[in-house]
Amino acid sequence: MAENEDGSEKTESASSKKLQDARDKGNLPRSKDLSSALLLIVAAVTIYGTGTLLVRDLADSFNFNFLVEREDLFDLNRMIFHLYVSVVSIMDSMVLLMSVLAVAGIIGSVALGGLGFSWEPVTPKLSKMDPIAGLKRMFSVQSLVELFKSIAKVTLVGGVAFLVIRYFLPETLGLTFQSIELSLAHGIDIIIWSFIFISLALAFIAAIDVPFQVWSHKEKLKMTKQEVKDEFKQQEGDPQVRGRIRQLQRQAAMNRMMSDVPKADVIITNPTHFSVALKYDQSGGSAPVMLAKGGDFIALKIREVGNHYDIPVIQSPALARAIYFHTEIGDEIPEGLFKVVAQLLAYVYQLRNARMGAPMPGAMPSLDVPEEFQWDGS
Fold first, then answer.
1. DSSP one-letter code for 128
2. Strand pairing partners for 49?
3. What are the start-end ranges of the H helices in 221-316?
4. Locations of Basic and acidic residues compositional bias (predicted)?
5. Is 301 exposed, middle or buried (0-12, 13-18, 19+ CB in 10 A)?
6. Which residues in the chain are classed under CATH 3.40.1690.10?
7. Is pLDDT larger for residue 75 or for residue 260?
8. How far apart are CA 370 and CA 279, in angstroms?
9. What is the pLDDT of residues 119-177, one digit of tens each?
10. How many percent of the chain have pLDDT more than 70?
11. Cβ proximity of 309 and 262 under 8 Å
């Protein structure tokens, strides 16, 4: 089981943050065997598809260079011309083959782990020059595993190559007795089948190596329980800091709420436990909006602000509780409370007009809160 430098066991799977950090540093699972197998398979398929073109170009080049006039052998310019013609004659088929192999090489290198770009692996580090650390890597379990993998790969591929050579040896020796065109075509056919058999061996190795590399990469990135806790704290923040932030947020929200209380038309109280401040825009035609609400100390502060700004404070325990528990700050009151709130606002406006010389209103109307909005104390 993987262990940390301090000896603690890495039992937890890597978090998404650690996986992303590893990707940013270029630490991705890779399989060289997958890339090699893909290259050989693509090479075999490409040669098989372009074999006729390649044979024709090679035959023309051989005929052109083997049938050389005597005077050309002693003329440097003619020999350079022969070289130029030979390169150009096989360029079209070779460029196609090399281009396909280049693309296959790129795809094979990023097929496992995906495409990633980072300067981290090539950044100079003094730790990479530490001879002790280098010796530890050389004699580590990972190096031992890689050594056995290399021996197994050489043995398997070498054995397959030996069997292929042994099987095609009579045909290979017989190429010397065939014409150029026929020997080239036959030789290309032998190369294609050799590629196929060796590719199958490498494909078998890649099929084993790919899951191993994925597993090994996950094992290297595993985390201890303490690392998981530290990362969570780093991402979420210290609990005390989070608590302080929430406290400041609540304080800021209360300050904003208190700043809206002077705009209220009426404050309804419990009278000691709850207070709500309502505002009604007569020109807008919408329902009354609750600007602020609070219980206990905050309820007292709302009443103090209301008294300071000469806002009517009405005691109606049932209505105060109904609005408090069924309305959020900034929202309109529920439709079921429209009637009773309208009665209250009408009474408040009559009081306001009385201050300006109008007749005093009578007793405050009975504010009957619908049963579904009454608070039962639960």
1. G
2. none
3. 225-236, 239-260, 297-308
4. 18-29
5. middle
6. 261-373
7. 260
8. 21
9. 555 566 666 666 676 666 666 766 777 788 788 888 888 898 899 889 888 888 888 88
10. 83
11. yes
The answer to whether 202 touches 157, Cβ cutoff 8 Å, is yes
The H or E element spanning position 24 is helix 16-24
Among 51-60, 303-312, 317-326, 327-336, whose mean pLDDT is lowest? 51-60
Size of the chain in residues: 378
Query: Sorting pLDDT into bands at 50, 70 and 90, what band is 239?
Result: low
CA-closest candidate to residue 194, choices 47, 304, 358: 47
Q: Candidates 3.40.1690.10, 3.40.50.1100, 3.90.380.10, 1.10.10.10; correct CATH number of 261-373?
A: 3.40.1690.10
Q: Could you give the CA distance from residue 175 to residue 163 in angstroms, rounded to a whole number?
A: 19
Pairing of β 313-315 and β 266-269: parallel
Task: Tell me the CA distances in angstroms from 56 to 100, 107, 235, 279, 330, one per residue in order.
Answer: 20, 30, 65, 93, 84
Query: What is the tens place of the pLDDT at every residue in 322-337?
Result: 888 888 888 888 888 8
Residue matched to tokens 């730790």: 127
Enter the pTM of the model.
Answer: 0.46
Residue 101: name the closest of 35, 31, 188 by CA: 35
Q: Give the residue ranges of DSSP H helices in 67-175.
A: 70-73, 76-110, 131-138, 141-173
Find out whether 231 and 11 touch, Cβ atoms under 8 Å: no
Averaged pLDDT for residues 234-259: 72
